[in-house]
Design goal:
The structure is a homodimer of 318-residue chains. Chain A is of the alpha+beta class and 318 residues long. Chain A has helices at 49-61, 133-148, 152-162, 174-183, 188-198, 218-235, 249-260, 266-276; strands at residues 7-18, 23-30, 33-35, 38-40, 67-74, 94-104, 116-119, 279-286, 294-299. The structure holds a DNA duplex (30 and 30 nucleotides).
DNA sequence: GGGACTAATGCTCAGTTTGAGTATTAGTTG
DNA sequence: CAACTAATACTCAAACTGAGCATTAGTCCC
């Protein structure tokens, strides 16, 4: 559209809320072209990125954000696929994506949230190792990963990223795993980007990808968000920005497990949590579960202090 | 220069190297307008930000970078002061800064490095708590901080940021402290930005600032870098990207202390370090110190693995 | 060649924190 | 009221930490 190439700054937000089942994402777009809430930064109108993000997420989805944090700025040529319906970028423009993560406090089941939400493991099935689902997804990928790992360097990268051969699974290395799958051509975006840069839209053999794709580089941004959130849980009391105001320790544990995609040892989880001083019991009980009623807790005031640390994650044995 | 406002992406790099005395920064600019190595992203020529950063740091300073990591993208209106000698931005443009941190492996004393280097504590005297210097800087600031802290909310922010009233000092909260000082008008950039936005260049009363300013928002980027590096030392073996290939444990401890600005307990530092498996002894000794000769160590191969953790920082008592 | 001096290493000890379980308890449901 | 289901308590050994005291291997100087 413009004679000289312009830089367009795209802002994308990973908006996470916890439902009863697990972390859910706020999505926008139409079927077949699903993406994160997205907008272009207006150099005149917007004073800061964060205000801009809050602004268009609310206007696009009707949802108002709480905690917001910048993730990363992606500028690689060839990974962005301009979003058609934005109508603001032409092929001559260079799109730079600034990714944000926003956390929305849990909403009581049944109460309606604005916007379309989806379980984030739809896009990363291999990241959910709470039950056998994630393992199954990984098993589906393994033949192709092994086929790709022709050198020892690649084999060791695969082993480190996916915790094979005695290496341990690091729940926060979501981006490493995704980038490795991208490089190996095992996620749909890889094929899309290659087709675009080769100019060919060759009818590739129909392969069954594990995990749904997202528009543009949004799945990469989502991977960054998941990784950041999983890592940050350990050193900041950030989980409380996702949890409801009052919760039982089991509910909190389920939430942490859902976010991190791992199972934790129940008794040890509650022990370290109580010792940490991050929570304090309200007097009230919660009896809906069919077992012994649980004490309801809230985050303590010390959990709001600057230096407050996060949760320890005592893994449950296999 | 252009009719429609454009977004200019400025890339700034905090390049850190360890000298014998402590962390040093690569600087560019002329006396009175010192800043970080800086360049504008070229939407046509540069394929990725990281390549662009490596490129212009080398061309501006003659120094080739090793480890590089993106820090943060700053887009607030009013905090950037366009760098005059870049000649690429006009007042109508919106400048967005993408900050990077780069680590250069220590150079043996005496060997020459390209570029101009300076101790990073020149810009943050209050961050060096290894000796009394940092405390003295903090004492100089306290009267003004107290005068600014007129509400209990501000008082508690000061206490949390600077570790007062029983709160502990968090070495990685460099940015929080800097932003607080900026807000309180106790760093020179605050006055500069206010003068600019008020259009007045009133001859303010000459106040003695603690810590030297940098061009544009570069000191903020530097604070982000220091904070990130200090935090990351604890959970990633990143210190080895700063240390020389072979080092004694005391040298490594001095380096960690210099980066983090705190004193560590010597015996406990070496104990956790040896147990961590991050280092392994070479056979060689190092006898230059006048005491018992020290074993020379290198980082182990396990320290290069994806999940390898960082160092624990056993603080020395006051 | 021995004593003073200086770092680097070694070791100890008690108090905490973790990993892994086993044992109770307080509601709900048939 | 017995069976069932969670929540909560308690235990125990192993590993990790904070604080020191103790020992060693060089250099420097008479």
């Amino acid at each position: 559209m413009n004679a000289t190439p312009r830089v367009i700054i795209g802002l994308s937000a990973v908006v996470v809320a916890a439902s009863g089942k697990g972390p859910e994402l706020l999505l926008s777009g139409s079927p077949g072209a699903i993406g994160l809430p997205f907008g272009s930064f207006d150099p005149i109108g917007h004073r800061t990125f964060e205000l801009a993000v809050r602004d268009f997420v609310t206007s696009q989805t009707g949802f108002a954000l709480g905690y917001v944090e910048q993730l990363y700025t992606f500028g690689d040529k060839g990974r962005e696929a301009p979003v058609a319906d934005m109508g603001q970028s032409s092929d001559a423009d260079r799109v730079v994506s600034v990714g944000y993560i926003a956390l929305a406090s849990s909403i009581v089941e049944g109460q309606r949230r604005a916007g379309v939400w989806a379980d984030w493991y739809r896009f990363f099935p291999w990241e959910d190792r709470r039950s056998t689902g994630g393992m199954r997804a990984l098993e589906l990928l393994m033949p192709d990963l092994n086929a790709w790992a022709t050198t020892t360097e690649r084999q060791s990268r695969v082993a480190m990223a996916f915790g094979l051969h005695g290496q341990s699974w690091q729940e926060s290395q979501v981006l490493d795993r995704f980038e490795l799958l991208y490089e190996a051509g095992l996620v749909q975006e890889a094929q899309r980007d290659r087709a675009k840069s080769h100019g060919s839209v060759a009818p590739e053999l129909e392969r069954a990808y594990v995990g749904e794709p997202l528009v543009s580089d949004h799945r990469r941004i989502l991977a960054t968000a998941m990784g950041r959130l999983r890592a940050k849980i350990r050193y900041r009391p950030i989980i409380f920005d996702l949890a409801p105001v009052r919760f039982t320790l089991s509910e909190l544990q389920d939430l942490v497990e859902a976010v991190c995609g791992v199972k934790l040892h129940k008794q040890n989880f509650r022990r370290t949590l109580e010792r940490s001083g991050l929570v304090e019991s309200t007097g009230a009980m919660h009896a809906e579960t069919g077992g012994r009623p649980a004490m309801l807790f809230t985050r303590s005031s010390t959990s709001r202090q600057a230096g407050a640390s996060g949760l320890s994650l005592p893994l449950a044995k296999r």
